Amino acid sequence: MNLFEMSQIPMKAAIKAMKLDPSAAAIIENPERTLEVSIPVKMDDGTVKVFIGYRSQHSTVMGPAKGGVRYHPNVCLDEVKTLAMWMTTKCAIAGLPYGGGKGGIIVDPAKLSRGELERLTRGWIDKVAPIIGEKKDIPAPDMNTNAQIMGWMMDEYSKITGQFEPGFITGKAICVGGSLGRTAATGRGVMTAAMEALKVKKINPKKATCAVQGFGNVGSWTAKLIHDQGVTIVAISDVYGAIYSDKGIDPYELAKHVAKTGSVTKFKGTKAISNEELLEAKVDLLCPCAMEGQITGANAAKLNAKVICEGANGPTTPDADAILDKKGIFVVPDILANGGGVTVSYFEWVQNLYRYFWTEEEVIDKQVALMRKAFKEVYDASKEYKVDMRVGAYISAIGRINEAMKIRGMYDPK
Question: Which residues pair with 209 in a beta bridge?
Answer without folding.
Answer: 232
